[in-house]
């Protein structure tokens, strides 16, 4: 069942994206509403799957994860068993922050966060020991220019 959202819902979502730790009173005041309707709308959007898991955003560099690699993977394997093994290998590795299947010359791109190049090499060696890939290219991010989880509502 699709849930329609209106301008007030979008304002609430924008506030939650900005800071989900705000109290209902703070959100209601910012969006010019009262606490109960804001809570009901949040609950409705959570039940509909519009609002998912709430987490905390950590600073990777402050925690010693200084290297971010974008890993481009080409494979000649496209059968279901290989894909299942590949997805399992990715899901079991906490270093993989994102994984996308692509259209075009590259089959997959991974965002991998590790402490340093040596840690990336350990990740790489473990991955290729589990699944066969045709070609892997690792690109080290020199500087993160923009990173957000906020959608443009």
Automatic annotation (TrEMBL):
<dbReference type="InterPro" id="IPR000485">
    <property type="entry name" value="AsnC-type_HTH_dom"/>
</dbReference>
<keyword id="KW-0805">Transcription regulation</keyword>
<dbReference type="GO" id="GO:0043200">
    <property type="term" value="P:response to amino acid"/>
</dbReference>
<dbReference type="Pfam" id="PF01037">
    <property type="entry name" value="AsnC_trans_reg"/>
</dbReference>
<keyword id="KW-0238">DNA-binding</keyword>
<dbReference type="InterPro" id="IPR019887">
    <property type="entry name" value="Tscrpt_reg_AsnC/Lrp_C"/>
</dbReference>
<dbReference type="GO" id="GO:0043565">
    <property type="term" value="F:sequence-specific DNA binding"/>
</dbReference>
<dbReference type="Pfam" id="PF13404">
    <property type="entry name" value="HTH_AsnC-type"/>
</dbReference>
<dbReference type="GO" id="GO:0005829">
    <property type="term" value="C:cytosol"/>
</dbReference>
<dbReference type="InterPro" id="IPR011008">
    <property type="entry name" value="Dimeric_a/b-barrel"/>
</dbReference>
<feature type="domain" description="HTH asnC-type">
    <location>
        <begin position="5"/>
        <end position="66"/>
    </location>
</feature>
<dbReference type="InterPro" id="IPR019888">
    <property type="entry name" value="Tscrpt_reg_AsnC-like"/>
</dbReference>
<dbReference type="InterPro" id="IPR036388">
    <property type="entry name" value="WH-like_DNA-bd_sf"/>
</dbReference>
<dbReference type="InterPro" id="IPR036390">
    <property type="entry name" value="WH_DNA-bd_sf"/>
</dbReference>
<keyword id="KW-0804">Transcription</keyword>
<protein>
    <submittedName>
        <fullName>Transcriptional regulator, AsnC family</fullName>
    </submittedName>
</protein>
């Amino acid at each position: 069942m699709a849930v329609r959202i209106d301008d007030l819902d979008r304002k609430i979502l924008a506030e939650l994206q900005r800071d989900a730790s705000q109290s209902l009173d703070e959100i209601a005041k910012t969006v010019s509403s009262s606490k109960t309707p804001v809570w009901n709308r949040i609950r409705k959007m959570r039940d509909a799957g519009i609002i998912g898991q709430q987490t905390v955003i950590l600073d990777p560099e402050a925690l010693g994860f200084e290297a971010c690699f974008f890993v481009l993977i080409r494979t000649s394997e496209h059968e279901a068993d290989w894909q299942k093994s590949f997805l399992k290998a990715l899901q079991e590795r906490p270093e993989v922050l994102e994984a996308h299947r692509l259209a075009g010359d590259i089959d997959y791109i991974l965002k991998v966060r590790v402490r340093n190049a040596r840690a990336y090499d350990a990740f790489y060696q473990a991955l290729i020991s589990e699944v066969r890939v045709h070609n892997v290219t690792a690109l080290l991010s020199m500087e993160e220019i923009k990173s957000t989880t906020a959608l443009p509502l």
